[in-house]
Amino acid sequence: MMKKDLRVILSGGGTGGHIYPAIAIANEIKARYPESEILFVGASDRMEMEKVPQAGYKIEGLWISGIQRKLTLGNLMFPFKLLSSLAKSRQIIRGFKPDVVIGTGGFASGPLLKVASSKGIPSLIQEQNSFPGITNKILAKKADKICAAYEEVKRFFPAEKTIVTGNPVRQDLLKIDKNREKALAHFGLEKDKKVVLVLGGSLGARRINQLVEANLEKFKKDNIQLIWQTGKLYFEEYKKYNSGLVQTHLFLNEMNLAYGAADVIISRAGAGTVSELSIVGKPVLFVPSPNVAEDHQAKNAMAVVNKNAAMMLKENELEEKFETEFFALMTSDKKQKELAENIKKLALPNATARIVDEVEKLVK
After folding, report:
1. What is the mean pLDDT of the chain?
2. What digits encode the pLDDT tens for the residues 177-201?
């Protein structure tokens, strides 16, 4: 028999890719167990300290950060930060008395889950990427359950406690096929012209923005309409192009409508984005960010490309290959259909529910 007032600590952060899955899991727990108590633990100077309270949850911060690849003052401070975070994690766990602890990656989840497992508290980690981060690799030995997004990850973790659930995604993406006309009307786009959706993340991707700018005349010549999400850092620089076939956006709040309007998508390859795009089921060209730990984005994209379910160009290949390969895709309905059908096969739309099912088993 499950208790109604579950006490759950969720830890993860540093990037949206770790924070949003944790919030999705918290929301699913709250929907099933309205009386549950949920506490988040993050890194005290990272974005989770703002995003988690906005989602309606309490958060405690740890003094923790990652190790840089070169010798820095921060690296010299790391042992002190780790000891401080372990001590605070013990204090948090002693005070909150969780029934289960869930880690979604990022540095803060390391000390917290280490302390939880040393005290015999059930723990679950959720790995979003096709190649695990260092924190989750270390934690996997002691974790009771590992929920992975990709089959490829199983080779890094103990097989008997690893299950492929997928990444938590927004449920409104399941209905985008039904709203194409509404989506086109929302953006003021024409039905008889192809639409390319360009995504560089909330801050934006400089290299993708430069790529679009360099090819604007070609897009216009081919009558291709653009929904171009420039991101926060670059909107002022690119808003001058907002006219006719080209729409520049700082941020897209109506992502379901943006996906609904798109025929083809150009995107970064963060784990959450790749999971979303599998559910969206449109042809995608991935341009992975080279500036992420352990080259995660290229590995996430390759996991899809290897199944003939997307195209990928690295940033250093864009000059040479973008015009020929991307515009060949735009003129081939056959290739678009093939990629769309194959990426849809990789979709795991019930990930959040399946992860919380595993949480329930641990608590029982």
Report:
1. 89
2. 677 888 999 999 999 999 999 998 8
Query: Looking at residues 304-310, what average pLDDT do you find?
Result: 97
Token output for 71: 């010798």
Q: How far apart are CA 75 and CA 308, in angstroms?
A: 41
Q: What is the CB neighbour count within 10 angstroms for residue 28?
A: 19
Please state which architecture CATH assigns to domain 7-169+349-363.
3-Layer(aba) Sandwich (3.40)
CB 83 within 8 A of CB 71: no
Q: What CATH number labels 171-345?
A: 3.40.50.2000
Rounded CA gap, 167 and 357, in Å?
14
The alpha carbon torsion through 109, 167, 356, 22 (nearest 10 deg) reads 40
Q: Which ranges of the chain does DSSP label H, i.e. alpha helix?
A: 16-32, 48-54, 73-96, 109-118, 134-139, 180-187, 206-214, 216-221, 235-238, 255-261, 271-280, 296-305, 318-330, 333-345, 351-363
What's the gap between Cα 358 and its chain centre? 21
Sketch the domain layout of the chain as residue ranges.
Answer: 7-169+349-363, 171-345
- Residue 249 near residue 321, CB atoms below 8 Å: no
Residues 187, 178: Cα–Cα separation, whole Å: 16
Whether the Cβ atoms of residue 127 and residue 18 lie closer than 8 Å to each other = no
Q: Are 144 and 116 in contact (CB under 8 A)?
A: no
Tokens of 89: 């994690």
Q: Do the beta carbons of residue 152 and residue 304 sit within 8 Å? A: no
Residues 336 and 191: their CA atoms lie apart, in Å, by: 17
Please report the DSSP string for 213-244 in residue order: HHTHHHHHHTT-EEEEE--TTTHHHHGGG-BT
Q: Where are the alpha helices (DSSP H) in 215-317?
A: 216-221, 235-238, 255-261, 271-280, 296-305
pLDDT mean over 142-154 = 93
Note if the pTM is more than 0.90.
Answer: no
Q: Which of 49, 14, 20, 38 is nearest to 135 (CA)?
A: 14
* Angle (nearest 5°) at CA 251 between 54 and 331: 140
- The two domains 7-169+349-363 and 171-345 share their CATH topology (first three levels equal): yes
